[in-house]
Amino acid sequence: MNRENIGNGQALLLALLLVGCAGAMAPGTGGSGYEEPTGSWEEARLAEVETALEHLWSIAEGVDREGARLSFTFWVHGGALTLLEHRREQEGRAEGRAVEESSFARRLRPLLTEYLRGKTGEVVVTLRREESGWVMGSDATHLAPRPPEAKTWPVNRRGVSANTRAEALAMASRVAKLLPVPSRGAASLRVEVALEDDRFTDWEHQGYEVTRGGGGPLPLSEKSIEQFARVLLPFTHGVGRRTLYLELHGEHEEQSPTARGMMTVARTRSPASPPEMDPDFAARYRAMHEDILRGWREGVREGAELLARYTLEEMALWYVGGPLTRRAGLLFESVAPTVTRALRRGGTKAAGWLHTSLRRLPQAERAAFDRFWTKVQMEGAEALSHAERQELLTLMNRIERLVRQPLGATERRRLRRLARESFVKLHPGLDELMRSKGPYELHHRRPLEYAHCFPEEDINALDNLSAVGEEIHQGINRVWTEFRNARANPSADEVDKVVDIVDRHFSRWYAQPHAPGESAEAMADATRLAVKEVERLLSGR
Amino acid sequence: MNTAAPLPGLTHFLEVCQRHQILLEKEPPTHPVPPAGAPIAGLPFDPMLAVIHSRIGHFRLAEGLTLLRLVDAQGFDLHQVNERWRGERPEPLRSLLVFAKEDLLAYYYATVPSLADARGCQPVVDIDVHAAPHAIPVASDVERFFDTYARYLEALVQSPGFEEDGFAALVFPWDVPELLAADRPLVELLRAGRFDFLLPRDEETRQWVARVVDAA
Questions:
Q1: What mean pLDDT value characterizes chain B?
Q2: Bridge partners of A187?
Q3: 3 state SS of B164
Q4: Residue A454 CB partners (closer than 8 Å, separation 6+)
Q5: In which domain, by residue range, is B32 found?
Q6: What is the pLDDT of residues A283-326, one digit of tens each?
Q7: What confidence tens digit (pLDDT) does each residue in B9-45 have?
Q8: Residue A90: pLDDT above 90?
Q9: Which of A184, A392, B148, B188 sits at a 20 to 30 Å CA gap from A296?
């Protein structure tokens, strides 16, 4: 269904029909799983429409030749609009009459509003310049999977921040410098611009070509640079890391001191997920990040306020999934090499490690950590002042020292309580089952007293915990007592060998309800055999 | 002790548990209570504990503290736990009388018969048998133990980290030396070195004991 030259009434009718047939998305969780901000959804949806109208007008207002054609491909989801592609498909010929912004917006607003009322999917909006104004059309028939940068929540904010506007202009200037145009000639350029949320972070040259020869190189006009920035701006509303592929064309007309440039193609490209990335982790991170980003875009600046609704476990996931982890090596490898290695693994393991490590920090230091990491995640590492950067480095070094030193009695008890809390929360059924025959206890397969031998591992990770009958736990502890008495400072390898011995002799009782006195003989045998193996290990036989 | 004797420590403890809704299980007494001084696995039953068991048979808190039953169908009761304890533990832990534990963790609470006062009331220690087994003192008698624990629970739920860290926000007894210091007879016992035979000789314990004594 490719529609052009149809009146607003028809466009509305078609848009309404699409609502019903294209996977209508009721306002609710926006697909992210997080609760919607009550009462503000309608306002946010309207803000999305107005922002899109502003952007489209800012691009279209400079195009006044009859026959010119522009297209905008949006992803529409839960009342949010994300621009995926813009093309300047056709140049016009004769100059048309001036068009008022109000009449442009009046005609386009109902179309966008209706799409945002429930549609999920791709929508292409086309604008064709006629002598008296713009003719609008749309096509929502193309089926495509949701691109990761597309928003799933509307943002209750009009336009973009002054900072983003300045960044877009700076990037437009940088790109313009890559396109010198021969006098009386023409040239083209392909370039990729990197974005992280609202921020432009990098660019990469993809090829320059003189398409029509001429004299010496001329710069592009200021007006062209401004026009480039106007095209870049609507792409800053996406989520996460992505690149923007651009095709630009420049030409020079006799007598003009500068060349005229136009951006003919701007298209987002999502980065491929690393193959090792756990899809569940990626999805949880993505949903949480969008939720926090929405708060940020709506004006919340305090880290504590942005993160107030999240548990420390969720916050650790967000920290690990974000850009700071990717840049950890550059930022603090020298003061916190273990922390850097632990974080670089990414995914659930790194998040679990960070979660446990943060819980070992006092509240005030945790709050400082939240503040700095949130700032870096939302504004980039450059946003940290020198003093903040030093404070962050001190903090990372503190974590480094914490994870490398043996746990004291207080910390061991605190971590055991945390392990109990997460174990019971995640395994309520097993907890009930284990209590059915007698008391049970949580066994850290790698004991907490040796946590410092494995500083990059989360000692409270679920795969390090086993539920065992209370008597079985005592048997296991006796094996470790033998080892401890013989080795004051064992290596990680020796500890892991004992873990293996204990697992081999006792794993038959892991996650099995156990009554006091039951299988006493088998347990005594297991303890005796395991102790013998430990003795052999220690004697090197 | 008279079974009708007032137990302000236990009353305070139960009131705090109920107010903060952390009592997961509470059972009335269901079996005859051994008299004060009666042997439990060969050690004299604490007179305060005897009175407590005449008022409450068992409890388990969401925070973890669990009072052992006098008789338990699953075989994990005061008598059987102490029988096994006597058979498995080396001295000096062997001569302690276990009466409570922390749910799912290998931390126990026991009275110390060898330090009983003139009334026969025994101090209370916290035992960790995860790694190198050791015990540290927490109260001069069972009643004071419950009173101190009640104040610890109050401090725990009011601590700034409680919302985030739950029951790990404050760790008993390590994080609350000042609460233990209110138990003056306990401080006197510490000063007199009466618990030295039980205390581990590491720096963390030494500093913690100093904090308890200093806070008094």
A1: 94
A2: A210, A250
A3: helix
A4: A446, A492, A495
A5: 8-170
A6: 888 888 999 999 999 988 777 788 878 888 888 888 888 776 77
A7: 999 999 999 999 999 999 999 899 999 999 999 999 9
A8: no
A9: A392
Helices (H), A178-278: 222-232
A487 touches chain B (CB under 8 A): no
Asked if residue A285 belongs to a domain, the reply is no
Question: Taking a C-beta distance cutoff of 8 angstroms, is the pair A56, A231 a contact?
Answer: no
Range of the domain at A522: 414-539
How far B132 CA lies from chain A's nearest CA (Å)? 7
A233 and A377 inside one domain: no
Cα angle A81, A62, A227 (rounded to 5 degrees) comes to 70
Q: Are residues A113 and A182 in the same domain?
A: no
A381 burial (CB, 10 Å; 0-12 / 13-18 / 19+) is middle
Average pLDDT rounded to a whole number, residues A343-368: 88
pLDDT reading at A478 higher than 50: yes
Closest chain B residue to the Cα of A407, Cα to Cα:
B204
- Most A CBs within 10 Å, among B86, B102, B130, B199, to test the A interface: B130
**The last residue of a domain, from among A357, A375, A404:** A404
Q: For A399-453, how does the pLDDT look when each residue is reduced to its tens digit (9 = 90+)?
A: 999 999 999 999 999 999 999 999 999 999 999 999 999 999 999 999 999 999 9
CB contact under 8 A, B164 and A311: yes
Q: Residues A373, A497: one domain? A: no
Residue B85 lies in a domain: yes
Can the peptide bond before residue B92 be classed as cis, meaning omega within 30 degrees of 0? yes
Count of domains forming chain A? 4
Domain shared by A138 and A18, yes or no? yes
More confident residue, A277 or A504: A504
Interatomic CA distance for residues B34 and A122, integer angstroms: 78
Q: Check pLDDT > 50 for residue A8.
A: no
The verdict on A128 and A44 lying in the same domain is yes
Ranges of beta strands (E only) in chain B are 23-27, 39-40, 43-44, 58-61, 65-67, 97-102, 107-111, 124-128, 134-139
Largest CA distance in chain B: 45
pLDDT band at residue A277 using 50, 70 and 90 as cut-offs? low
Interface test with A, best of B61, B104, B176, B211 (most A CBs within 10 A): B104
What is the percentage of chain A residues whose pLDDT exceeds 70? 90
Whether residues A525 and A433 share a domain: the answer is yes
- Does the ipTM exceed 0.90? yes
- Residue A287, domain member (yes or no): no
Instruction: Report the distance separating Cα A421 and Cα A315, nearest Å.
Output: 18
Domain containing B94 — which CATH number?
Answer: 3.40.1580.10
Helix and strand numbers, DSSP H then E, in chain B: 8, 9
Say how far apart CA A219 and CA A227 lie, in whole Å. 15
Q: Give the residue carrying structure tokens 């400072």.
A: A489
- Mean pLDDT rounded to a whole number for chain A: 87
